[in-house]
Each structure stands twice: as C-alpha cells, then as structure tokens.
Amino acid sequence: MSELGIRIKKIRKEKNLTLQQLAGNGISKGMLSLIENGKAQPSMESLHYIAEQLGVEVSSLINGRSIEDYRTILAEIEADSKEIHWTEENDEEVIRSILARTEHLQAKLTFDTYEEIRLKEIYLLMNYYQSKKLDDTSFHEVMDGYERIHVYNRLLRCYHFLGEISFSQQDYHKALQLMKEAEQRVQPHWYLVNQLSQLDLYYVLTVLYAAINDQKNTEHYLQQALAIAKNEKIFYRLDDFYRLLLIQAISKLDKEKSMFYLHKLKLLDEFSEDPLMHTYAAYCEIHYVNNIEQDYESVHSLNQAFFEEDEAEFGGFMRELFMCEEAYAYYMQEDFESAIAISKDLTIPLYLNHPIDLSIFYRVFAVRALCYQSLNNIEAAKRDILYAKDGVKEYPQNVYTDFIQDAYVKIIN
Fold it and tell me: Which CDD domains does the entry mention (predicted)?
C-alpha cells in the first residue's frame, strides 16, 4: 500500500466517511479503493477532488504535512531571512542554513498553497545568491503559482527579482521588458495589488525609463506614483523618487528643479530619521553643491561633517561616491595632487548599476586623467581617460558624459 493511499484511507476513516461517500460523483468507488490500496495512482484532478472531499490540502495527502506544518516552517525561515543584510560575513552561513532546511522539502512541495509556493521561492532565491544560477523553469512555476492563487504582490516581487538580475548586468532594455510584462500581467487584477507594491512597480519603471533616456515614460510613471502617494498620504518611496529626480536635474544642470528636489529630499530626511535615507540625502546635497552651486570649499566641509560628526550606519558603503565628489572639488580648485591622492584607489562599487550613477563615477577617472595631464604624467592620463570614455560609450548624454568627452579631446588630441 502506498503512503498516499495510506494517508487517504486514514483521513477518510478519521472523518467517518465510507468509500462511497468519499468517492461521491467525482470518482468511482472502485478506483478510490484501488488508490487507497496502492494499486492505482490518482490523476492530479482526482487528487484535488479527494483532498476537497476530505477538507485537506493536497500537500497533506502527498507528503503528510499539514498547512500548519508549512506555516511553522515558513515563519521560522522568513524570520531568519531577515537577518541577511548582503554585506555581513554571517550572511553566507544564514543562506546555507535556509537551504539545508528547505532542500529536503522541494520534491514534496506542490503549488497549491501560499506557504508551499513561498518556500519554493525562498529556496530558489537562496540557491541563486549562493551559486548565481537561477532555475528559470522552477522560478516561473513559482510565479504561475502566485498568479493562480491571486497573490499578485508576490508575483510582482518575483518580477522585481528577475529585473534586478538584468539591471545588475546593465541590460536595461531586458529589465524594462520584464517589468512591462509584470505590469500587463497584474493590470486586470490591479485592485488586488496593494499600494506599496504599486509604488514599487512605478518606481522601478521610472528608473528603467530614465536609464534608457525615455523622458516621456519616465514622467508618466513618476506622476502615476506621486498621485498614489499624494492621494493616499503614503510617504513610502518618496525619497527614492525625489533622489532620482534630483540627480536627473543636476545631470542637466537645471538649478531650479535641483533646488526644489533637494529641499523635498532634506524635508523627508528630517521627517524619517532613517540612517540610510540620511546618507543618500547627505550625498545628494554634496553633489548639488559641487555641480550646481560650484562651492567647492563647502564640499570639503560637508564631507568632513558627515564622516566625522554625523556618519550614518550606511555611510561606509557609499564612501566611494563621497570621495568622487571630494576629488572633483579638488580638481576644480586646481589641487591636482589632492584629487589624485583621494581617488587613486577608487573602484566602481558593485551597487552602482544605473547609467547616471555610473556616469558620475566614471567622471572621477576623467578628473584624475586631467590631473595627471596637469602634472605631466601623460601615460597615466591616457590610461584613465580611455577607461572613462569606454565606460560611458553606451550611456545617454548628460553633464558627466560631456565632461568625459571634453577631457578625452583635451588629453588625446
């Protein structure tokens, strides 16, 4: 007798049902008897019917675990996954632990309940973070599962994950294609998508359209998002939107808009008292002072104030960007040796993937090249300017790419 048949028979007897009562009109009494005695395997349709008749989940018939079991396991794993910060040494240990506790479940998981689908998703995510390889077929089964049970917020999170992979590879068009597919897929059920997930979707679409320099659609999704935030009095993601708008305005040397968005960002920073937001706001102010106000002396004092007096919890991981601003300010003050000294060990951080952010960073190599040229180190100047020029060759034109191009002409020609 198979384990499946044993479980069906056990639950039937616990519920005081006869074979005929359980069979009902959906399956023959003889076939049910064969299934219970391990002499026949039910189709998935029949299995779902039997589970419905018994008032249990299909998973409890297949692997003997109840939905309560999965809820307990999932709650523990969700709690552990929150301990992953992607920057700390113990992250790999937590990931290995989650994989160990979910791997043995995979063969038995169905896609009928939220708990099982989420456990499958977590396993696939942890496996990707460890190996950088994604089981694409299984991941799309997870997505289809969420759609089948109408959990569209998690379906969108799956699309975000796929989009992030393409974005990190700087394949902006593929990332945009994925997020447009996500929008179209959930659109008929938009009323089932919570407002935070709606804002997340609009934010990512705004970022991606900005990455390919599509101003019309960038503005469209921005306004969609701001309308939700305003109408529902939701502050979620507002700092991200204003930061994006500010950097875009600065990249076009639009002083009026830059001042407006910086003011909004600083108000949100004061309101939130969030260390990460404070770090971004501090950087944005320094970038504004450097490029719009061109008050280079203030750049040094603002940098010093942030890192010596008000350094936030997240100040360290953005230190490279602050140093880029410092080097640029030194160059504009014609302190070439200081500019080289502060930028000589800079490498492009892994967290930078947007073409505007990358253009800002590549500019520091052009700055350093100009400094080397001024100090008559032509070989180093050519090395750095060629690296900067090649780095931005596929990016939309902005003030940073213009600076690199002008430096290239000065050094190479």
Answer: HTH_XRE
